[in-house]
Amino acid sequence: MNEILNHSVHKPEQLVKQLANQFGFHYCGIAAAQPLDEDARRLEKWLQQGMHGQMYYMERHFELRVNPAKLLPGARSVITVLKNYYPEQTQQTSAYKISKYAYGRDYHDIIRTQLNSFFDALKTQFGNINGRGFVDSAPVLERSWAQRSGLGWIGKNGNLIHKQSGSFFFIATLITDLVLEPDAPLAKDFCGSCTRCIDACPTQAILPNNVVDGSKCISYFTIELKEMLIPDSMQGKFDNWMFGCDTCQDVCPWNRFAQPHQEPGFAPVPAILNFSSKDWEELTEEGFKEIFRHSPLKRSKYAGIRRNLQFLQQPPDSL
User: Fold this and answer.
1) Per-residue pLDDT reduced to its tens digit, 20-62
2) Could you say which of 136, 177, 189, 279 is catalytic?
3) Which of 67, 167, 234, 273 yields a CA-CA distance of 20 to 30 A from 176?
4) Of the ranges 13-17, 63-67, 273-277, 293-297, which one carries the lowest mean pLDDT score?
């Protein structure tokens, strides 16, 4: 492979992107490793307003989030890669709803392996370079780096939107001391005057001026909230979402360009596609651990899934 790459690619940036594609990533962009000063101000204001709810981990390591040199001394470039997870098949329409990102195996494991292989290939090509890869598991503002590297814009719903492929992507980041020419960010966002995501959000979590109140998001309540009680004020507003929520992505016009992924690891767990609401309600803890042992659903644990189900089963007028 090295000989082919060396003969067919001349610019280092082209080589980086070709390697990213070979290791399973659909898009790759490059940004200069500079402090995210504007993003830091926005994040600080968002945290001060309490829009992170009980996601207290977002308050920690603030400097690491906004300055790549704090994560990797000598950092020169931030390489961002996108991996498609849009499924070919979706759930039964009458079943409790699961966010599409959680249909298959835990994406952290799959992408981390591919990102490590990608970085190993970069070291083979460029020599003794340093780097750190991140897959939604460290204080890195992935969407900001993706935007800076020209991979899309951050929509009103807070998701990165790629003009050719929509927003059903995982984002991974590789900070390195390799000097690369950065890509140009998009000159503007292409949401325009569209407000479909704002209008469709079941809990009114999407606010004007590209702000999402995370403490009102269904994904927050069904995944991140660790308390065993979901606030009564949310009763009747979850639109049958049991784990996560895709409403703002499903209504986004740019996702008409989404194409099914080809990643075997993201193939849906059969139960995701086949379970009826009754199947979910009758699922035992042993069954849950067996069926979803490699699934993102294990993050909520069986107790969290039961809590979500019980909340959805409670009639809105029962309070």
Assistant:
1) 999 999 999 999 999 988 887 887 887 788 877 777 666 676 6
2) 136
3) 167
4) 63-67
Q: Is 201 annotated as a binding residue?
A: yes
Give residue-wise pLDDT tens across range 74-128: 999 999 999 999 999 999 778 999 999 999 999 999 999 999 999 999 999 999 9
**258: in domain:** yes
Nearest Cα to 114, choosing from 182, 21, 177? 21
pLDDT over 50 (residue 224): yes
The 10s digit of each residue's pLDDT in 232-254 is 999 999 999 999 999 999 999 99
Q: Which domain holds residue 201?
A: 1-180+190-319
Residue pair 191/156 in contact (Cβ under 8 Å)? The answer is: yes
Look at the alpha carbons of 15, 18, 24, 30 in this order and tell me if their dihedral is positive or negative: positive
Q: Please say if 136 is a catalytic residue.
A: yes
**Residue showing tokens 């000989």:** 3
Instruction: Note the Cα 31 to chain centre separation in Å.
Output: 19
Which residue type is seen at 106? D
Question: Does 256 fall in a domain?
Answer: yes
- Tell me if 219 is assigned to a ligand binding site: yes
Q: Please state the domain count of the chain.
A: 1
Neighbours of 182 (CB within 10 A): 18
- Report yes or no on 248 lying in a domain: yes
Residue ranges of E strands in 195-319: 206-207, 211-212, 241-243
Pick the closest to residue 67 from 47, 31, 38, 37 (CA basis). 37
CA dist 110 and 271 (Å) reads: 20
- Annotation-wise, does 144 bind a ligand? no
| Residue 143 marked as a ligand binder | no
Contacts of residue 193, defined as CB under 8 A and 6 or more positions apart, other chains included, come to none
Question: 28 labelled as ligand-binding?
Answer: no
Residue 185 lies in a domain: no
Check whether 19 is labelled as a binding-site residue.
no
